[in-house]
Design brief:
four-stranded mixed sheet, Porin, flat, alpha+beta, single chain, 13% helix
């Protein structure tokens, strides 16, 4: 069926004689059409022929509106489905390309409804969206054109995908009257050419001057506009920063922007949005004088030695030794030499530093007793570092903090065990 349709259209194209074709603004269109309807697989309907009729209006050379009615008598694919009548009503918008040519392609999209009897879904009536492409070929001076298009039909709420291809005719009605032929006006009387005038004295005559009223003494180009040698948008006589690199954003004085006010122009600033007042280097990045990775304006421990591990405030981190001190005990057995070896290595990594060995207790007992016990625990670790790992006593200072600095809940056994600890501040001076 569709092959016959295409052959008919092709034959008409061959018989058509040359015409002056175009889409006529303000004209109505009547378009009978015939084609094929392909159904979604789950609808169990065979590809069937349809006929349709369109009534349209050309808003201008490119845009048109068209109301379309189509009807398809669809045959069932098997016994699970019955033959079905499918009707669509839609309002489409068309956009024409090359509207003054004989062959006019177009795009189309629109909304409407699709109705089936009996229904082929959960509902009989569905909202319909369609879009597609087509072509019009004029065969009679602006009045009749052949038409062919293909549409994707998408109905809701449970989407089914249908395809319609069609061919037909377009009758363009109400063709506007041809424009009146202009009458040649009589030749004007020659007027003497006045002498060239240069009102602002910039060396460019007024008829060529695109920037009249230039201030006296300002250098201008061949169009009479003030020179902008570095092309930053600020004329040379106002530019306080000449020779700005191409493409660099400038302020109204012609100087490169410095958005964060750190004294480094934005196009050179590798660290934009530096906080106000933060000292920066030549690249606009905040200074990190001790090289610990924390900027000076955030560093609460300036002057940290090179290589020392620090926290977010730039202060040396503390090594916690996991020694399971018993309740009311400061004994450190050889089974903890692995933990103490970590402290020994940390001390060796920072030669010249005085290392604090800090003891802590849980909250059991009096504060005064816990203070003494915490010092004993710290000293026990110092003694083990001297005896087992040959760390000089002069490198270490034992300190006790009693129960003052808990790291866990003293109300439960597990928390109290964590609070009975020794910390080694090997990275601090």
């Amino acid at each position: 069926m569709f092959k016959k349709l295409v052959l008919t259209v092709a034959a008409l194209c061959c018989l058509a004689f040359p015409v002056a074709a175009e889409i006529q603004p303000g004209a109505f269109t009547l378009s009978p059409m015939f084609g094929g309807h392909l159904f979604d697989g789950d609808q169990s309907l065979e590809t069937s022929s349809f006929w349709g009729l369109g009534l349209g209006y050309n808003l201008d050379e490119n845009w048109a509106l068209e109301g379309v009615y189509t009807r398809t008598d669809a045959d069932a694919e098997d016994s699970s489905t019955t033959d079905t009548e499918v009707e669509t009503i839609r309002l489409d918008a068309l956009y024409h390309f090359r509207p003054t040519e004989k062959l006019v392609p177009y795009l189309v999209a629109g909304l409407g409804g699709i109705y089936s009897d009996p229904d082929v879904g959960t509902e009989r009536d569905h909202l319909l969206f369609n879009y597609g492409v087509g072509v019009k070929y004029f065969i009679l001076d602006n009045l009749i054109a052949l038409r062919a298009d293909v549409r994707h039909l998408l109905d809701f709420p449970e989407p089914d995908h249908n395809l319609q291809y069609s061919a037909g005719l377009v009758f363009q009605l109400g063709k506007p009257a041809p424009a009146p032929v202009p009458v040649a006006a009589p030749a004007p009387t020659p007027v003497p050419t006045p002498a060239p005038v240069d009102s602002d004295g910039d060396g460019v005559i007024d008829t060529l001057d695109q920037c009249p009223g230039t201030a006296p003494g300002v250098a201008v180009d061949s169009k009479g506009c003030p020179l902008d040698s570095d092309k930053d948008g600020i004329a040379d006589y106002l530019d306080q920063c000449p020779n700005t690199p191409a493409g660099v954003a400038v302020d109204n004085t012609g100087c490169p922007l410095d958005s964060d006010g750190d004294g480094v122009f934005d196009y050179l600033d590798q660290c934009p949005n530096t906080p106000a007042g933060a000292p920066v280097d030549s690249k606009g990045c905040p200074l990190d004088s001790d090289g610990d990775g924390v900027f000076d304006y955030l560093d609460q421990c300036p002057g940290t030695p090179a290589g020392v591990s620090v926290d977010e405030q730039g202060c040396p981190t503390v090594l916690t030794l996991h020694i399971n001190f018993g309740h009311d005990s400061s004994q450190v057995g050889p089974q903890y030499d692995g933990e103490i070896a970590k402290a020994a290595q940390c001390i060796r990594d920072y030669p010249g530093n005085v290392v604090f060995i800090d003891g802590h207790t849980d909250s059991t007992g009096s504060a005064e007793y816990n203070q003494k016990l915490s010092v004993q625990r710290a000293q026990a670790v110092v003694n083990r570092l001297i005896e087992k790992f040959n760390i000089p006593e002069s490198r270490m200072t034992a300190r006790g903090f009693g129960e003052d600095k808990p790291v866990a809940n003293n109300k439960i056994p597990e928390g109290r065990a964590l609070n009975r600890r020794v910390e080694v501040a090997c990275g601090a001076k």
